[in-house]
Amino acid sequence: MQTNLSLKEIAAKYNAVIRGGLNYQGRFYKTEMKTVINHINVALIKWIRRQRRNLERRQRHAATWLSNIAKREPRLFAHWSVSWSSPVTG
Length: 90
What we know:
Elements: H1 7-28, H2 33-51, H3 59-72
Helix pairs in contact: 2-3
């Protein structure tokens, strides 16, 4: 992911791809959905750690920061609005 974009810009850029993956895999590969969602969340946590230098070495703090955003704006990313997905991994 690109560090020069804001989180809203990243969401706008990737939501169509995430939504398409959720629709396809949710229909044919339901057992893989948790893995895909976790992969997306881990990528977002890595982006946060690169973007915010105070969280660079603090994975749990970055995950908490992401979780707070997910609670505040649950429809920012397509996979956050799925009821069985967790906005934070690790």
